[in-house]
Design brief:
The protein is mainly alpha-helical. The chain has one domain: Farnesyl Diphosphate Synthase (Orthogonal Bundle). Helices cover 75% and strands 1% of the residues. It contains 18 helices and 2 strands. Strands 1-2 form a two-stranded antiparallel sheet. The chain is globular.
Amino acid sequence: MGGVVTSLAAATMSSPEVPARSDEDALTTLMQLVAEDLRACNTTIVARMDSPVVLIPQLAAHIVAAGGKRLRPLLTLAAARLCGYPGTSGGARHVELAACVEFIHTATLLHDDVVDESQLRRGLASANAVFGNKASVLVGDFLFARAFQLMVGDGSLRVLEILSRAAATIAEGEVLQLATQNDLSTSEDRYLDVIRGKTAALFAAACQVGAVIAERPSREETALADYGMNLGIAFQLVDDALDYSADQATLGKTVGDDFREGKLTLPVIAAYQAGDATDRAFWQRTIEASEQTDADLEHALALMTGCNAIQTTLARAAEFAAAAKVALTVFPDSPFRQSLLDVADYTVYRPR
């Protein structure tokens, strides 16, 4: 098992060292500000992913090796530092909770790829494609259990309340997405409910616990939760736009997956609502009835282009990113505050 742990450690520890492109300067700056904390977080992740059941660290090493920017744990580390939490790397609460946040996120990725039957994750074969659905679901369960061990180990009922509620909300968001799949009556408000649950809730919790462990007043705790919620919504809106507009190598998954799965995201909602009878008949056939041909994705993209559905989605993302930045006005200027403001902009304008 030592070789598996070594490969897991190498995959985990390498991610913050990779030089970022110039268009990712905001994220690079944030990584640099919390570099020591992030290294300690990665060490914790490696230690907590270890298991005598060899398949667990093997599968964990696979998904970690696929990359990822560690955005959610970065938010926990930065929020704690923004609130003046001193901590010492390695055993500090913010480090342990950042690892907890990453475990929750990774567990949901494993489960989502099984539900969506995804074959790619960040440009590599997904864990379920390599190890099978059963192993992916069970290792996802293991990571959720590890996350709850870290919550309990922190010793704060308030932290446990925030993170356990987020975990439940994520599951609710995923089930709500399943309920809206193939349903063209889904409104933008309903769609936003989905992404608040499945994505933004963890962003909000990741930020909020930083204020809790720093023992900051409720005003600051609420501000960080609002920042994370709005940032998470913006992040998912951009992801949903990228599914129809990104280069596949940049996106790291197959372009058009949401279309093929019949997911009701804002680009589809906007195009359907803007369409004439012929256009709507197309969406009813391809999304509601799931009757698709090889040429349908290209036609869907043409309809979206014709009504500016992608631009509409990105404009909504920019609105939520702006709201995230407003939430931080309760904090005095500092390198951490500025970095979090820049990350909100990066979320909307990241490479595509």
